Amino acid sequence: MKRKFNLFGLTLCLLLIIGSFPEFVSAQEISPAQEQEFIDAKAALGAAQKAQAEKYAPEPLKQAQDLLVTVEKARSSKDAVKFAQASRLARAYAELAEAIAELRFQEEKYASTQEELQKAKEEIDRMKKSQ
Amino acid sequence: MGDRAKLKKTMLSFLFLGLPILFSQTSLAATTPTMIIEEAKVAIEQARKAGADRVALDDFMAAKSWLSQAEKEYEARKSLLARTKRMVSSDQEKEEEIIYLGTVAKLKAMTAEAKAKTDTTLVQLRQAQRELGDYQDAIEILKKKLAEGEKAKEAQAKAEEERKALEEAKQKTAELEDQKKRELEEARMRASELEALKQKELQASRLEEATRVSQRERELSEAKLRTEQLAERQAKEAAELKAWEEKLATERESIAALQKKAEALEQEKAMLAEASKIPQATARSGDKEIVITLLAINLFTPNIEITTPGKQILDNLGGFLNRHPDHKVSVRGHTDNVGSEAMNKTVSEKRAQKVREYLVAYQNVNPTRITALGLGPSQPVATNATEAGRALNRRVEIAVMTE
Predict the structure, then answer these.
(1) Is residue B255 part of a domain?
(2) What secondary structure does DSSP assign to B60-109, as a single string?
(3) CB distance from B390 to chain A under 8 Å?
């Protein structure tokens, strides 16, 4: 039982170590389409920042930024697959950050409007009473 | 058994610590394909519930598509061939591929959900904004109404105040009128009182004036009288003064005359003293004159010629007269009563003449100041009964006028 567990552990560690060096496994040229995906990801990140994602959705925005760093690393290691995947993920995170920021912004606006509405109602009640 | 548990724990620690490191490098979440597929499914379901299939259809469909791809890859991974391949090579890449697809599907679903929620929120927001607008309109209307109500109230209050003010003013006016009437009445009474008082005062003042005038007149007449008296007194005093002055002048004159007289007397006295010093002559004071008596026996011969001693006496007499040249001189010849009166008168005249002539001729006495007169025996100074007496009566008197 002890030997079996040791074997499983060693195999897992080996896999992990190999997995941490994928550039040695696959090294391909980055295609223009993949480059476009990277550009789209950056544009999405810009849009998210414009929508105040730093304030409303900092986590997905951070993920997107980290992924863009990963993309640059993948470009250095000429890992086209990882470049493309990280680009798409970065874009997806950025779009999510933008959507969340927009949602939070509108929610805030809604809450503020609700507050104003409540105040207006109270004001009306008060005025009605004083009438 | 303890060692095994320890080793297991070590391995698990490595796994949980190592995986994040690994996935931080690969930028993929620390999860398994199964988990991520399940999460993506849940996310898609939530998105659907949020209405993403209506309002965020693109993202929703994309999520589904990505999920479908992940599931496909996952199914393929479970196939016999894949399992056989896994026995000889690593399954890491495929697993990452599935996780990546699942993650994208999940992210897309989440994005769709967020968009759907945003849409819902926007709808709610618009609704709330509309409601808010309605409420604000209502508030404005209410405010207007309230303001109108306030204005109406204010107007009413104002009207009430004005009415009260009018009432008060009326009352005040009535009171004022009453007061005015009272004051007018009082003023009339006061005026009549004043008039009466004035009349009284006028009468009093007239009386006083009349009294004053009469007093003045009296005073004036008194003053006139006093003035007249004063004038009289002054005139009297002036007359008295004049009289006094005249008297004074007279007194002064008399004093001056007296002084003159005294001076004359002094002079006469001096002259008398001086005359008394003339040898063979006697001097006496007469009425305004000094009479120097020379006995005829000492001056003349029986023929009535002047003897030498007589000339000496006359020289002395001449000296005396020349020392007093301003006095007039009268030479008077006297005789006794022997013989006739005419003869005695002639003898006396002759004797007087002789003396005058001698004084004029030998003593240079001014002839205009010297006269000669024969008085005969008319003024004897001694008895003619005796020779001695008769000798004394035969004499020449030289009267020197003292004035």
Answers:
(1) no
(2) HHHHHHHHHHHHHHHHHHHSHHHHHHHHHS--HHHHHHHHHHHHHHHHHH
(3) no
Q: How many domains does chain A have?
A: 1
Phi, psi of A125 (to 5 degrees): -60, -45
Per the DSSP assignment, residues forming a β-bridge with B399 are B291, B330
Structural domain count, chain B = 2
Distance CA B173, CA B167 (A): 10
**B273-286 tens-digit pLDDT:** 888 899 899 998 88
Could you read off the pLDDT of B175-218 as tens digits, one per residue?
889 888 888 888 888 888 888 888 888 888 888 888 888 888 88
CATH of the domain at B378: 3.30.1330.60
- pLDDT tens for B141-166 read 888 888 888 888 888 888 888 888 88
B9 band by pLDDT with thresholds 50, 70 and 90: very low
Q: Which of B59, B125, B145 sits opposite A110 (nearest CB)?
A: B125
Domain region containing A100: 2-130
Query: What ipTM does the predicted assembly reach?
Result: 0.78
Domain's final residue, options B140, B170, B198: B140
Indicate the residue among B140, B156, B191 that finishes a domain. Answer: B140
SS3 content of chain B, % helix, strand, coil (to 5): 80, 10, 15
Q: Which domain holds residue B307?
A: 261-401
Q: Is A75 left (phi over 0), alpha (psi -120 to 50) or beta?
A: alpha
Is the residue at B392 inside a domain? yes
pTM for this prediction: 0.47
pLDDT (tens digit, 9 = 90+) per residue, A69-78? Answer: 999 999 999 8
Q: pLDDT tens across B76-118, in order?
A: 877 766 667 666 555 677 888 899 899 999 999 999 999 999 9
Q: Under an 8 A CB cutoff, do B92 and A19 touch?
A: yes
Pairwise CB contact (< 8 Å): A131 & B92? no
- Residue B35 C-alpha, separation from nearest chain A C-alpha, in angstroms: 17
Q: What backbone phi and psi angles, to 5 degrees, belong to B303?
A: -85, 10
Question: B306 lies in a domain?
Answer: yes
